[in-house]
Amino acid sequence: MEIVFNPGELELLASRFKILAEPARLQILATLCDRELTVQEICDCTGLHQGNVSKHLRLMKDTGVVACRREGIWRYYRAIDTELLTLCFYRQQLLERLKG
Q1: Which domains are present in the chain?
Q2: What's the CA gap between 48 and 52, in Å, rounded?
Q3: Could you tell me the CA-to-CA distances from 88 to 72, 75, 81 in Å, in that order?
Q4: How far apart are CA 1 and CA 67, in angstroms?
Q5: Any idea what DSSP says for residue 6?
Q6: Please, what is the angle between helix 50-62 and helix 39-46, to 10°?
Q7: Which of 16, 23, 25, 65 could form a disulfide with 81 if both were Cys (CB 3.0 to 4.6 A apart)?
Q8: Cα–Cα nearest to 57, from 86, 15, 19, 85
Q9: What b/e string do you get for 68-89 counting C-beta neighbours within 10 Å, with b at 16 or more?
Q10: pLDDT (average), residues 15-41
Q11: What whole-number distance in Å separates Cα of residue 72 and Cα of residue 94?
Q12: Using CA atoms, how far apart are residues 25 and 77, in angstroms rounded to an integer?
């Protein structure tokens, strides 16, 4: 199999894999996989600190992995790159099979 990427595609692909390279971002992404949450709710679910979560969400928003909407003083985040979530799910399934 031969895969050919143009420079723009390479940059986009690299930015998506960069998101997956940090365990905290994977944890946040998994938490958001089927729901919309505030930063505080993400902190409560993951045990991560607010400043850390906010930093990762900003990066994930800038790369198009999550989206944010504002309602009053609250910001609600949701995962929008569902293909990235699917990739994570299939990788997890493969790792489970390899362990067993």
Answers
A1: 8-99 (1.10.10.10)
A2: 7
A3: 33, 25, 11
A4: 34
A5: -
A6: 120
A7: 65
A8: 19
A9: eeeeeeeebbebebeebbeeee
A10: 92
A11: 42
A12: 13
Place of tokens 């299939």: 90
Q: Do you know the residue count of the chain?
A: 100
In this predicted model, what pLDDT tens digit does every residue of 44-74 receive, in sequence order? 999 999 999 999 999 999 989 999 999 999 9
Half-sphere exposure of 89 (CA within 13 A, CB side): 10
The closest alpha carbon to 40, from 23, 28, 24, 26, belongs to 28
The rounded distance, in Å, linking the Cα atoms of 20 and 63 is 12
* pLDDT the model gives residue 17: 85
Spatial neighbors of 5 by CB under 8 A, at least 6 apart, are 13
The DSSP bridge pattern shows strands 74-79 and 66-71 to be antiparallel
Average pLDDT over residues 15-29: 90
